[in-house]
Amino acid sequence: MTITQLYRNQVRVSALIDEIVAMFRLQAQEKGIDFTFTSEGRIPEWVITDEKRLRQILINLLSNAIKFTNHGQVSLNFRYRNQVAEFTIHDTGVGIEEEDIQRIFKPFERVRKPGVPIANGTGLGLTITKLLTDIMGGDLQVVSTPGSGSEFRLSVMLSSIEPLELVRSPSQIVKGYKGERRTLLVIDDDPSHRGLISDMLTPLGFTLLEAPDGITSLPLANHSQPDLILLDIAMPHTDGWQTARLLRQQGFQGPIVMLSANARESQLNALGEGLHNDYLIKPFKQGALLDTLARQLQLQWQHQANTLSSAATVLDRPATFSLTDSMSGSTTVSTTMPTHIEASLREEMLALADIGHLSGLRSCLSTAQVDGRISPSLSEELESALDRFNFHQISHLLKKSL
């Protein structure tokens, strides 16, 4: 894959963020500065994006922040609204002069400040970051105060989805799985949690073993050699991470799925050690549990028919209203404004909206307005949707313009 190619797949956002946070928290500690992560609102569980490119952008930005911060802290904030993710990286480093802000994105450019050592590297880090951001249809803004620090704000579309493994026909219910019987070990100090998991999985053909704590689980795991272990993190005495470490030390090589009520706790303490393979946030639904098991054990589900019919779909239609005059009869007047867009432009903008290419959409719309290839009413509606990062509305408006 070249730098200009995108490979979009299903990405678990919280796992990606946890990986990044763990990586740079360690780097910050080694340098003697603080690193914090905060999030505003919900974090979508699954999105469609190019994980490799997004990770590379975040790594480049955070590496730069830590490199030029000798005192204070570096922070990462995540915000998600209307399918658009906003990553804000703030540091208390040396800062950037206003006249140098545009130069930092140019190849081989280095901003030199008195008393600040020249950083190692090729000088291409931020150039590549800006290029990748543009390729992904995102936006990268910089605000900086010399001597006080800098703030880089990355906005990129991350379309929230249900993972493919969970998109099942409404007429199908899982009744079991193909292949040999699988044994699972549930390690949790709460008997009600163990019982809930057993109630979910035993009817599907799994053999469930239970342990109330980490120490009890060790001989049980060694003797039974389960196919997969579900391990609670928050247990007294020996917590989940310590238990996972002991299980690996005694030779267990199968998948370990960590269970936690804290989304941030689920990966921060053990990334890079190879202790676990996946995690679930409590409380979880059966579908999420089955999806995780299918992914880790390569299971193929068997289904039973469900005779319940699916709900009817209501098609979207332009709104109209009737003005009835008793003397002259009935007249129907459409409330929809006349809209027009050139067919080739419409298809191009639909493709851009589908991948969340904000800058591409703005460029297309601006050119079309000058060339008269789009009606003023539709142009105004699209501009409003663009200002709100509402790509679904943009697609809807374009499809209605047929």
UniProtKB/TrEMBL annotation:
Superkingdom, taxonomy of origin: Bacteria
CDD domains per the UniProt record, alphabetical: HATPase_EvgS-ArcB-TorS-like (cd16922), REC (cd00156)
UniProt domain Response regulatory: residue ranges: 183-297
Modified sites of kind 4-aspartylphosphate: 232
Keyword terms, alphabetized: Kinase, Phosphoprotein, Transferase, Two-component regulatory system
Cross-referenced Pfam families: HATPase_c, Response_reg
Gene Ontology CC annotation, any one: plasma membrane
Protein name: histidine kinase
Single GO MF descriptor: phosphorelay sensor kinase activity
Annotated Histidine kinase domain residues: 1-160
EC category name: transferase
Catalytic activity: ATP + protein L-histidine = ADP + protein N-phospho-L-histidine
EC number: 2.7.13.3
